[in-house]
Every structure is written in structure tokens, then in C-alpha cells.
Amino acid sequence: MKKTILYLFALILLVGAGSCNKDEINSQSIFVDPTTPPSTFDTWLLNNYTYPYNIEFKYKMEDLESPLTYQLAPARIENSIAMAKLLKYLWIEAYNEHVGIDFLQTHVPRVIHLVGSGAYNTNNTVVLGTAEGGMKITLYAVNDLDIVNPSIAQLNTYHLRTMHHEFAHILHQTKNYPAEFKLITVNGYMGDDWDKVSQANALRAGFISAYSMKSYDEDFVELIAHYIINTQTWWNAQLTTAGTNGKALIEEKITVVKGYLKSTWNIDIDEMRRIVQERANNINNLDLQTL
Amino acid sequence: MKNKLFIGLLLSLFALQACVKDEDKVFDNSAADRMNAAITSYRSILVSEANGWLVEYFPENDLSMGGYYFIWKFNNDGTVEMAGEVPTAKYAAGQTSVSTYAVIAEEGPVLTFNTYNEVFHLFVEPFGASDVDGYAGDYEFVIREVTPEQIVMTGKKYGNKIRLTPYTDTKTWKDHLTQFVVLDQKMAALGYNVKVNGTNVRKAVRRYRTFSFENNAIAPYIITTTGIKLYKPLTIYGKTAQYFTFNEAEKKLVSDEADSDIVIELGSPPVNGIFAATNDSWKIEDNECSNSFRTLLTTTKNQLLNGGYNFTYNYMYCGRSPLDNNMVFAFFVFQSAPGNAYYHVIYNFIYTPAPGTDDQIKFAYIGPGNGNAANQPAPVTGILATITNKSPYSITIKEANSPIIPAYPQGIQLTSVADPNFYFVIYSTE
Prior knowledge:
The complex is a heterodimer of chains A (291) and B (430). With 291 residues, chain A is α/β, with parallel strands linked by helices. Chain A has ten helices and six strands; from the N terminus they run ααβααβββββαααααα. In chain A, the strands form two sheets. A four-stranded mixed β-sheet of chain A has the order 1-2-6-5, with helices on one face. A two-stranded antiparallel ribbon of chain A has the order 3-4. In chain A, β5 and β6 (136-139) form a beta hairpin. Chain B has three domains: 31-171, Lipocalin (Beta Barrel), CATH 2.40.128; 187-269; 278-428, no CATH class. At the A-B interface, α1, α3 and β3 of A face α1, α2 and β5 of B.
């Protein structure tokens, strides 16, 4: 008896739920952007980011796209233009050169969001970039970019390392790296206390940066980002500082990283590094101010 | 179980009710259509003012900076021209800078300035890890009221009220905006006396465009062509006023409201009493101190740097310690490299007004305070002993060399009465 009543209720509920769906779904957003014509930069972005890679390049800041806890300021248009050209040359085209355009077309984040200021925390740290679920990369401190004489060192520290770092997150979130990586320095991860560790002490403990000590995912992507943007001389200097024990741990990790990138994504990280650095040496020949 | 069945029955009855067709329509269009119509209409009203809009803008969560004017002119191509009272690195007061705006749909129509404009976003950007919200201004505004006569908005993050009125003055933008800066300087004083019906009732000091009273209440205001307008009416001893006219000859602000008699007199309270009770910490500006003071400071810097803590010197400050509310002279330092960690090396002092004077103050060192002071080598205290021995100091206002936002008092020079060649200059860090 009870079962019959329950079925009856379910039926009535279904009838109730189904009875009003006569409207067809409209493919247009219900909100329309009124009559702002696209600027030259907007058209350039369509042709260089949106059509070839399906990337929405958001240089006009939207508060809802960023963490509301931070006080942030938008990016200058001229800095956004320079950043769009630099990312295309140093990041997109570097991957294209190595693994072909299909790779980024498939895996690239769909939104790149620029923020003019850094995102400062009260614990004296600053967030330079974030990635969300493989969909979006946010780059901060875009207004700090010198668009006349860009410094590759600053670009690497502020933005390119972030791009490689966040993109590496997308790669491992798509296909995870071998679990053995997590065991190499399993007791070294310390969460948010990473900012209390100096670079030298991080190296000695077997981490390429203090931020690597936050978690094994961060460790993994920091290795990729630091390896790609730095020279072998820099890398060797880090290993020297790391000492015998630290060096062995870092080398064990980078071997796993190299194997993962090659077998999973057909990326030769040494070749990628050569391409990225060749391009980095050439940025002073780029015109970052005209489209 | 029976109860559950009844609840189920009740719920299914609601489902049967869901399609009743005789609802009265309150609106002719859908919510989305109405939003789109509002956005289009607001945008066209913004663009319609060919001379631009005069904007009363209030940053800071607690309104502690008071209000500043902008003139905004909105163009059809999505650009906006902005000029402001406050000079920036690249733009003088009243000079125009162009960026973009949009009216977008959120919970209501929102006006956003979505690319950087140096004239405007200086109120928005963070200053760094030591001040993560800067002047805490909004750049996105919920539009509340739109008529051809005025637009009222509230900041999305901090909720302060922003008012736009059509710019009708025949003066250039620059002349219009700089008149407020000029009047602001005329109304400057170290302290103020508030009178109701001729009787002194409160003392006040001014920071940016806000009066702070001795009972910790504040009254933010914006300058008008003739005086000031408070953010909201002030009630004091039963009298209420919002608009004040400046009487330059008699150095006072007089309330406009017919039945109120509130007067704010300039410069009345003894300034040494105000400074002895300051709630601010004040940065000592190395480059503007006397040679004798600077020599002492250089020695102290080296002692700090060689004290075994791998410090990088940042600056020396005095006034109220941000750590523990004591009156201090202190050093603000980084460990190893900028951005790594901040430390305060704090020494406690007693601040007392010099008896029988209005503008002289004494400082007396009483010992190491919080922070890293106790661990420092003894010679660091040399500068502290000298500051004590050279007391009392006379207090004079000093104009800032290149104010980004002029705090008031912009700067104070403290000069030893016994040795006029020993002085130092301080700026409020609040």
C-alpha cells in the first residue's frame, strides 16, 4: 500500500515538473552588451587568441573573476597589449614550435584574465598568478611590466614562471603524474608555512623553491616552471647550494618530471627550455606597443 | 512514517499548483529585458553630458579619508576621460587621462572602470604587502538612482555613496578642480575647536578630508566652492548641520543651517597636546632632517644592520606604535631581503606638552619596548638619548615636497628649542 502511494506521489510530482516547459532555450545570453564597438585591440585578440585557440583574453577587469578578498586594480591597456604580445611569443608559439598547434588548442586554458595590481596577503606574500580547474589563468601585477624595456628576469619571475606553473597544473589535473613523485620528499611538505623557509633551506631539503614545499602538486609544477625558464647554469648553481642530499632529491624528482612529460604529453622539457630561452633572448626586438 | 506520507502529499499538491495561469503580471517585460533596458538607458544618460559629470567620491571603508572630486566624461566608444584633484606621478591636478568603462548586469546595473586610469585608480590599487588595500576605494558601482539631474551610486565593495551631477561650470576642468585644493589649504590648521552657541564643546584634528574629534567620532567631508559639505549631517549638543561656509578673515567654518550655530575654529587647541596624544605613527623623513640628526640616524642604521640580524633598514618612525599602542621612537626593518619579513625595533618614550606652551613638546626615553629592541646592541640607544636631551621641540607644519595625496598635517617639523640646528621632519603614515 505504502509503495503504491509513493509511486502515485512520484507520478504527480513528475507531471507537475514537466508541465511548464514549453519555452525553447535561446542560445543568446539574456544580457546584451549595449553598443560598445570593438577596439583595435579587441579585434587583434579575436584574431590571435580567440579564433585560433578559443581563448578569451580578458584585459578588462571583472571583479567577479577574481578573489573578492583582495583589493585589486585593473590593468593598463598598453600593458595588456604588451602582455598579450609577450605571452603569444614566449608561451603559445614556444609550445607550437615544439609540439604543434593542436596541443595548445586542446589543452590551453579558455580564459586568461589580467589584473593590474598584485594580490597582496597580510602575511607579506603576494599572489602573482592563479589557475582554476584548467579553465582559467589569472595573471596579476601586469602594471609592473616595463613595456619599453621589458626585463626577461622580471617577466620570468612575475609572469612567465606563473604561466608555465599554472599550465603545468592543467596538465597534471588532466592526466596525473606518477604517485612515486609524492614519496620522494614525503615529509617535507608544510602547507602555508612555506613562506618561512629561505630559498637555500628549501634547496637543501630537496625543493627547487620555498613555494614547492606547500604541497606535492606545487612541487611538481614548480620544477617544470623553474626548469623551463632558467638556464642550465642557474640550475647547476641551485644544485650546488642544495648540497649532496638536496641535489640527489631534486634530480630524482626532475627525472620523474621529464619522464612524465615525455611519455604523457610527448614534451621534451630540454627542447622546450631551449626554445623558450631562445625566444626570451629576443624580446627586445619585439614591438610591444603597436598591434 | 505517516508524517512523511503527509508531507509527501502536501509537496505533490504544490506541484499541481505550479501552472496556474491567471497570475497578474506586475511587469510587462522579463527581468532580463528590464535589466537590458536599464543598462541601455543609463549608458545613454552617462554619455549625454557632453561637458562631463562632477563626481563626489569617497574611498575607505570607514570614510576616514573624506571625499575627493573627479570629473568624468563618458564617450560612446566605451572610453571615459577622467580628471581629479589629486596629482599623480604622471598627471597634475585637473589633467585628463583616458581609460574604459562599461555598464554591466550583475544583481543590478553596475558601472565599472575596468581598465587602469592613473588619475582614478590610485584610490583603488593596493600599496603592497605592508598596506594590502591602499586607499580602499571602489571602482565598480551599483547604480541606485538615475535622473538627468543626478546619478547616485554605491561602491560595490565598500558601499560608500558616490554622487554625480552634470558639470555646468564655465571654468576649465583644471581650474574647477584646483579651486578645491586651494581652499583646502586655506582651511588647514594643526587643530580645530568646535563651538556650539558660542561655547567650546570639542577639539578636533583633521586627517585628509575628515575631522577626528577627541571622542574618536569622525566627520568626513568634501570641499565646496565656499567651504565644506559633510558626508552626512553632524549632530553635536543637539544642533545639526551638514554645510559649512569658510570665513577666511576670521579663520572659521560656520554652519549654513539657519537654526544651527556650530562653528569650527581653526588652530585653537594647543597643538602640543594634540601631538602628545596622536593616534598615528609618523615616518621620519631622512632627507628633510638636519645634518646633525641625519648623522645620528646613519650611525644608528649601521648599528642595526650590523646587529647580527641581517636587517635591511626601512625607516624610523615615532608617535603611536602600531604593535602595542605605546608612544615610541622606533625602527621599521626588513630581515634579509625586502618582502621576506618585517620587524619593528621599538623604544618606549613619554610625550609631554612643555608646560606653559601651546606648541612645544618633550620626549623622554624610558626603555626598550616590544619588537626586537631588547636584542639590539646598546649603542642604538645613542640617538634616543640625544632626542631626549634636546627636548623640548617646537612644532611647525611643513608642506610635503611632492604629495601624492596630501595628508594633513602634511608634515611636521620638530625643532629643538635649545639647539635650532637639531630638527627632524615627520609625516603621518595613516
